[in-house]
Design brief:
- The complex is a heterodimer.
- Chain A has helices spanning 18-54, 59-63, 67-98, 107-127, 133-154, and strands at residues 164-168, 171-176, 181-186, 190-196.
- Chain A is α+β, with helices and mostly antiparallel strands.
- In chain A, helix 1 packs across helix 5, helix 3 (67-98) runs antiparallel to helix 4 and helix 4 (107-127) packs antiparallel against helix 5.
- Chain B has 16 helices and ten strands.
- The chains are: A alpha+beta, B alpha/beta.
- The interface between A and B is medium-sized, with 18 and 20 residues.
Amino acid sequence: MALSIVSDTTQTVLPAPAQTFATHIICAFLGYGLFLTASGASVLYLAQNRLLKRKTFGIVFQDLPSLEKLERLEIVCSRLGLLIFTIALYAGASIATMLKVPFWFELKFLAAQVTWLVFFVLVAGRAMRWINGRTAAKCVLAGASLVLITFALGHPLSKQTTTTQFQVPSFRFQVDRSIANLKLETRNQKLPLEVRA
Amino acid sequence: MSESPPLCRALRVIGLSHHTAPVALRERLAFRAEDFSKALANILARGFHEAVILSTCNRVEIYCVSSTADDPAPRIRAFLSEYHSVPESDFLPALYDHGGADAIRHLFEVAASLDSQILGETEILSQCKEAFRVAAECGSCGRVLQRVFERAFFHAKELRADGGIGRSRASVSSAAVDLAKKLFELEDRVVLVIGTGEMASGIVRALKSAGVAEIWVASRTEARAQEFAKNEGGKPCLMQHLEEHLTKVDIVLVSSAAPHYIIGPKEIQAVAQKRRSRTLCLIDISVPRNVDPAIHELDDTFLYDIDDLEEIARDGRKEREAVAVHWRPRLAEDSRELVRVLGGTESGDMAKKLLEHADAIRADILLEHARGLDPKTAEILRRALERMQGKLLHGALGTLKQAAREGGGADAAAWVSRLFVCK
């Protein structure tokens, strides 16, 4: 969850603790990177599995590694990714709680939670041997799709409302990127100044 | 006048191989390892500077450098005939004879396994190295053969590393191993062998050398299973406990003579829960097939029959042939280059000899005529002789240099040797 500091009340906008914020950002990127690496291994796993099932022994078959190696890469990346992503989620939630920002029902947070759940099921399921290699590879691909969706939801272009706010005493600046305009407001009253791009 | 012929005529390979002679003839001309030194000494005594004998199950070849100008082929033929007590007429039609660059190219192809029965096999390189080592120990391997063999070993390694000739599988056994390796690492895997066919033992040996941990052998006849297990280093087990075995093994190799399916989807599904999604590889090389092909449709279960293995081996052979077609011109080009280099060395040696020869004559003349002369006159005489020597040899040395550049160094060296009578 890439944190968005959004609030209707000007009092709640405070600078996030730098260390927690950095942890959140770094872990989120690392976790997503590992999930995407796992998804790359999964694509190769499914390709090699298909070649072995169809008995197509061409150059691609010769060049691809064994199913076991590909699965090992997929599982190691997923486990590590899950661990780091959990830290990212926790850090993000801590910041939001500290800033008293309601995030539980934010779409991006929900998508991140579902991603976490998919990878958790995959890692646990494969460790307990509930699911086989092919299903695990498909799980990873589903998780990776969610990662991309979460990224898309975090993009400024996807925002319908304010994305950045900052405050000076008595005034509130609000930059609305989706409609690219600048509004200047007091606490209780909208000032006549409004700049539109 | 020196009797040494130029390198292109002196270096020869004379022999026979699986291309030209049946095994019945090859075995009559084969050399035993313990007789190499005696045979090499025999060859050297027939007017050769250098000799190497390469004797394998597929070929008998003698690489030699003649020290006389006459054709070395009749001498080698006589040696083979006398040494093995085989009439020349018996092997003459099967004998091939290459000289100079062709001999070098032939050795390059032999060492790189481009002339082998199975393209890209690795054994021939070690056999070539052994032949070279023995010849070096016997003192029959000189400057020319050393350089040629070392170059051949270099090309063989390069072809294997960069050309990838050993990458593809050319036999059914190695294809089976290759296939299993595409599923999992073979270390610590358990193999169940059902049946005791000859082809099964080949695959078991290949799997063992690939690192599998255990081999269990099951057969309808317990005694056969025990014998097979003893020969191949496995453990005999009972066919009645097949289901139990299927829960533990990773590879099942079926090579039985049963007229019906021994393993079907039911058997695999029965053990699926106990196997807990572990991959199972079944290789069925029996004809008629003993494993139901429907098994291949099940999850985590892969079944391959003899046709699949043959297909991989055939593709591998094609791939190796393509590599060979690509490399042969390269090796031919390098053999010509090596002849040029060796010829250049030869012309360089000849230039050195010529200068030494001229220096010796000048020193003799000076010693004879400077006696009684005053030092100033003797110095003038010495300088005059030096200048004369330089002017006389200028043309010959220039020709040798030019010939070495153009690749005819060996021929030029032979001519200079004849003209100036220097040995």
